[in-house]
Amino acid sequence: MFKNLTALQPISYAALRIMAGLLYFEHGTQKLLNFPIPGPGALNTLQMASGLLELIGGALIVLGLFTRPVAFVLSGHMAFAYFMAHAPQGFYPVQNGGDAAILFCFVFLLIATMGAGKYALDNRKG
């Protein structure tokens, strides 16, 4: 049974890339556009930069455009966010609310190393 699943690896990897990008994009829309729920309010420079990375970077990941460099930058963004915002709140991720930041960091690191995969604009010819 598991041998048959191997054929689905390209599709499941594309689904991971697209869903990670959509979830990341949603964080940007919340911060910058107050959608789907109101964001944190007035943003300082760091929060504005973070929102732009989430909005633009998330969209590029979904589209699979400039995937490797964007994923690398977003991985670093999440590592930075974890140590700046979450780690000071406590040692354990479940305590400091940094679970998503860690997961995004390593998913984007995987995408940076593996590339866009299937269903990506990076694969277009010409």
TrEMBL record:
The family annotation for this protein states: Belongs to the DoxX family.
Hey, what's the signal peptide range on this chain? Answer: none
* UniProt keyword list: Cell membrane, Membrane, Transmembrane, Transmembrane helix
Give me the segments passing through the membrane: 45-63, 100-121
Its membrane topology? Multi-pass membrane protein
The protein here is known as: DoxX family protein
Q: Give the CC-aspect GO terms.
A: plasma membrane
Organism (species)? Cypionkella aquatica
InterPro entries (UniProt xref):
DoxX, DoxX-like_oxidoreductase
Q: Where in the cell is it found?
A: Cell membrane
